[in-house]
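Dear support,

Our group has been running a series of protein-ligand predictions, and this particular one with uridine-5'-diphosphate is the one our PI (initials K.S.) wants archived with full inputs and outputs. We had some confusion internally about which version of the output was final, so please treat the block below as the authoritative record. The input we submitted was:
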Amino acid sequence: MIVTRGCELSVVVPAFEEAECLGHALEIIAAHCRALTDDFEIVVVDDGSSDGTWAELESRAGSLRELRAVRLSRNFGKEAALFAGLAEAGGSAVVVMDADLQHPPALLGVFYRLWKSAAADVVEGVKRSRTREPLLRRLFSSVFNRLLTLLTGCDFRGNSDFNLLDRRVVDTLLRMPERRSFFRGMVGWLGFRHYRIEFDVEPRQEGISRWGTIALIRLAGRAVVSYSGVPLRLIHIAAGGFLLMASSVGARSLWLYVTGAAIGGFMTVILLLLVLGALVLLSLGVIAEYLGAIYEEAKGRPRYLISQRLCSQEFCAAGQIANLAGALDTPHSALSREQTRTP
Ligand code: UDP
Ligand code: MG
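Confirmed final output from the archive:
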């Protein structure tokens, strides 16, 4: 479904179980946007929350005329929510930011002015310090970002989802057909004129982070498999190394046999079997990851499903809701049960 309102600035906010902080965040974001332009919208994507996030949005829609919201039919994850927001946004510039105010709204002005002065197509928020995050989390992020930088050749160090994208970039992103999306990776891959702005990650206003260790590891695995074939090549390298080792051990055993000396006991055999077994299983695991990725893409399911929409009276009355049936034709989204509501 295409419900877009051509405007100057869209701010896309994915929200999952953010009832506690969303109202406050919306007020602050709207105040910062208003200082920049009158022609803006805030697009909130409720990623299948069960805690009253949607009710909070419904209660705000009457007073905040720039607010639009879509509700996904279940929790599809932040990546899908981001793309739902990008598809809904109609701004010439689109900013993506978190609902917990960890991405400082004060930087909206800096991002916007850089874009307005035509200095950049993509303004990236880069995390300067993460000292307030737990040590393990920082360590994991640092290893992950370095690994991804090494594997893909794009600079992922300090990267965040806090970005401003020019309309051209948003449209290009939306045309990329992959289902296993990784927003930061895709934006980095696209190129265009990037400008990096450092920021300090603020502490979360309310609630808790939804990214547990397992979710982060899954995202990391997904990103590596989606953006690099290096793990597959590593299998070749490991196999080559093992072949070398096997050849030298084999040659030595043969030499000992020919010279009549005794061959080392079971230890060598056991070690070889263990190493070989582990290597084969590991390689199978890597191949399975890629196979799974191909399977997921081949199914071609939409990235997300929208179950409800919300927009201000003024916006809906303007008759800008277009082509409900078209929703099913879009490559990324589909409507399960269309409900467009005005407060
Ligand atoms: N989020 C989402 N879907 C999810 C998990 C998170 O839309 O399944 C949103 C969340 O509401 C927030 C943003 O993504 O606006 C970042 O999430 P969070 O603060 O939990 O992650 P962290 O800042 O710890 O990386
Ligand atoms: Mg957060």
